[in-house]
Design a protein that fits this description.
Elements lengths: L1 E2 L7 H9 L7 H20 L4 E8 L2 E8 L4 E6 L2 H11 L4 E9 L11 E7 L7 E5 L2 E2 L3 H10 L7 E9 L1 H10 L5 E7 L2 E2 L5 E2 L5 H6 L4
Parallel strand pairs: 1-10, 4-5, 4-7, 7-9, 8-9, 9-10
Antiparallel strand pairs: 2-3, 5-6, 11-12
Length: 216
């Protein structure tokens, strides 16, 4: 598991601003910080990819360079993932994308046995492809697990990378217990725990609401 916060960097500032309850009133800033963290994590994840040497011709000569052999497929779990996903798309600007509608059942908010609704899936062909699953909050882990289960019904990816901004230990353990397919986990920060409503502590609140407004 890769944890960005394990090494000090400018990304600490983006994380701190996401958590700051005063700065959270600025939705534009909140979304932009998620996007910037998406860019940082795209850079980190890219280091795990296969590269191929090519020769680039400039006006004054030639230079060997190692480029990514194959673009990944970016899979965003709506709706909070959209700004975080945009950061990945800024860097993997030739990548195909898929979108998943998965969210906790509203009538079960407050129930520690929260279940996930899975209502939408639109993806390109994932067979033998590298997938990056993008969801900023890894709380219970059930949205990620449900997403992978449904994706495996339509194809067999070569690699799976799961990327979140903030994760809870309970969610990480649920992934370990539930996902049999090999995967790599990339997070910006590992928090303390889930509360009795299955929200991450200290977390930052509801990322979707902070990005786009309170849902009804």
């Amino acid at each position: 598991m890769f944890i960005l916060e394990d090494k000090n960097s400018i990304a600490n500032h983006f994380l701190a601003e996401l958590r700051n309850e005063t700065l959270q009133n600025d939705r534009l800033k909140f979304r932009r910080n998620l996007e910037r963290l998406g860019e940082v994590m795209a850079y980190e994840v890219s280091k795990a990819f296969d590269f191929s040497e090519i020769v680039i011709s400039s006006p004054l000569g030639k230079k060997k360079s190692n480029l990514i052999l194959e673009q990944p497929i970016l899979i965003a779990i709506l709706r909070a993932a959209l700004p975080f996903y945009q950061g990945f798309l800024n860097f993997f600007d030739q990548a195909d994308s898929g979108f998943i509608g998965a969210f906790r059942k509203e009538e079960q908010v407050g129930d520690p046995k929260v279940e996930v609704e899975y209502l939408y899936q639109a993806t390109p062909d994932i067979n033998n492809k590298t997938l990056i699953l993008i969801d900023p909050m890894l709380a219970t882990g059930k949205s990620i697990v449900k997403t992978i289960e449904n994706l495996l019904l339509i194809g067999n990816p070569k690699e799976i990378h799961i990327v979140s901004v903030i994760a809870a230990p309970e969610g990480i353990e649920f992934l370990k217990a539930s996902i049999k397919q090999p995967y790599q986990l990339w997070i910006c920060s590992l928090d303390e725990c889930l509360n009795d409503q299955s929200y991450i502590i200290p977390g930052l609140g509801d990322a979707g609401d902070l990005c786009f407004g309170n849902k009804i």
